[in-house]
Amino acid sequence: MKNRRDFLRNTFGLGAGLAAVPRLFAAPTQASGESMDMEHMSHATQRNSGIVSVETPDVPQLPWRMSGGAKEFHLIAEPVKQELMPGKIVNLWGYNGRAPGPTIQVNQGDRVRIIVDNHLPEPTSMHWHGFEIPVEMDGAPGSSQDPIPPGGCFIYEFTLHQAGTFFYHSHMAMQEMMGMIGTFIMHPKKAYDPPVDKDFAIILQEFAILPNNPIPNSMNMEFNWLTFNGKAGPATTPLIVRLKDRVRLRFINLGMDHHPIHLHGHTFVVTGTEGGRQPKTTWGPKNTVLVGVAEAADVEFVANNPGDWMVHCHLPHHMMNQMSSTVGPLTRRTGMPAGVSMENGMGMLDGTPGVPLGDDYGSSLGRGMGVGSTNDQPTTNGPLSQERAKQAVAATTQNQEMPRMPGMQHGQMRGTQHGEEQLPESANQVPGFPQDAFMEGPMMAMDKMVDKPENYRLRPGWSGFMQGMMTFVRVLPPDMYDKIMALKAQQSPNKQQMPGMEHHHHGS
Ligand SMILES: [Cu+2]
To answer: Nearest CA to 273 among 171, 180, 167?
Structure first.
């Protein structure tokens, strides 16, 4: 007889998104606490039904058990440490150890119970976005229920007659900006026509994280960390599909900005919104879908064009990490205004004496540190000296790693770091220079730091050109697809385990 602990261990030992999924499509006949048996993954059920489980890269699936005729899930609202990219660990608020929280997948018609524990230092409430359920279960704090106090618990239970891409989120507005959201998929009773071979969901989030501060400033109106499923490029995980697969991508947005998500190399149709499936008569060809705040967008396409295709938010500043948070130098050589303080540059009036429309609050070039920065501080972002740059290149040619820059690929750096070979000498005479030159793309490559099966055999140096809300759809021939799946299968289970599982002692 398997106990609750085995249930959890089995589920997460396999992790990797698919673990909790197959039984979603089986009849809910399990006894309470029974393990989801991974040896009997009901592929046949999936094939016959035409429904595939939804993969949420970088986000685990939330396991469930049958209890009292309902699928029972357990979410814990809590502070989390989230690694946006290697070395960038920030303090967010989320669920079950991460932000966004784990993915819930159920079937249309299911009875669902979700136990929500509040481990935050303040009240919270869970809203089921778009769910047509009794108002007592809606999670609107103060109107449909009392907020869940710190240390408290609320049990939500309802029957779901809808189908589509939904999500759950804290209904405390500032908590939303700390990361408190998760994907909630309701699979239709009958597969959509046409059925897809691959189905992915990606949550779009944004955070304002000032330099040297690991806590997002939820008051800001401008954001410098943009994420897909809690990761910023190049730490996002590419979506792996087979050539000729029909693919569905589901995007969910809960932030302060709308995100135009663009796919390279393919034409898609928008088949669903946060309200569910859209009629075929609305399916016009597109390659960009604007995902508004609080909206979801499902798009579908046939992956008929082999290659590693970018999929990304097309707002230019959303294709960058740590935008403008330069410490010191901004331009390569000559002086340039550094911009006003971080607070003012991000649109916050801080009570400093002065005229709101004066220089101190005007538009600015980039953002200073907020400490000692002024409008006229000259800065430069080139190498500290030509001498040091030459040393760096010399070290590169001898295959030596530069100290203090672990993981950076200095082998790629030659010719672009200080511009001698690639940039014309007159570059500084060109009004507007530098634009992307200051980002030093090749130097910023970190292929090794973000190495994972899904990145297998990407073009060397690719990671220097992928930031913010950006990843790949890799449309692969069968041999390459199989190779990557084999590499994934070899991954150590530890690596795939969901953080925060020690919290799951509820009901044991
Ligand atoms: Cu965007």
So the answer is: 167
291 Cα: distance to centroid of ligand 1 (angstroms): 9
Q: How many CB atoms lie within 10 A of CB 3?
A: 12
- How many C-beta atoms surround the C-beta of residue 421 within 10 A? 10
Ranges of beta strands (E only) in 278-436 are 285-286, 288-291, 296-302, 307-313
Cα torsion 230, 505, 175, 11 to 10°: value is: 30
Q: Count how many residues are written for the chain.
A: 508
Separation of CA 40 and ligand 1 centre (Å): 41
CA of 409 to the centre of ligand 1 (A): 28
Instruction: Write out pLDDT tens, residues 96-155.
Output: 999 999 999 999 999 999 999 999 999 999 999 999 999 999 999 999 999 999 999 999
Go through the domains of the chain in sequence order and give each one's CATH number: 4-195+491-503 (2.60.40.420)
Taking the centre of ligand 1 as the mean of its atom positions, its distance from the CA of residue 439, in whole angstroms, is: 19
- 492, amino acid identity: S
Beta bridge partners of 112: 71, 158
pLDDT tens-digit profile of 417-476?
Answer: 433 457 788 887 888 777 776 555 566 788 999 999 999 999 999 998 899 999 999 999
CA distances from 392 to 196, 397, 421 (A): 49, 9, 15
Here the tokens at position 305 are 């064009």
- Cα gap 25→352, rounded to integer Å: 59
- For residue 468, the CA-to-ligand 1 centroid distance in Å is 9
Collect all residues with Cβ–Cβ distance below 8 Å to 387 and sequence separation of at least 6.
Answer: none
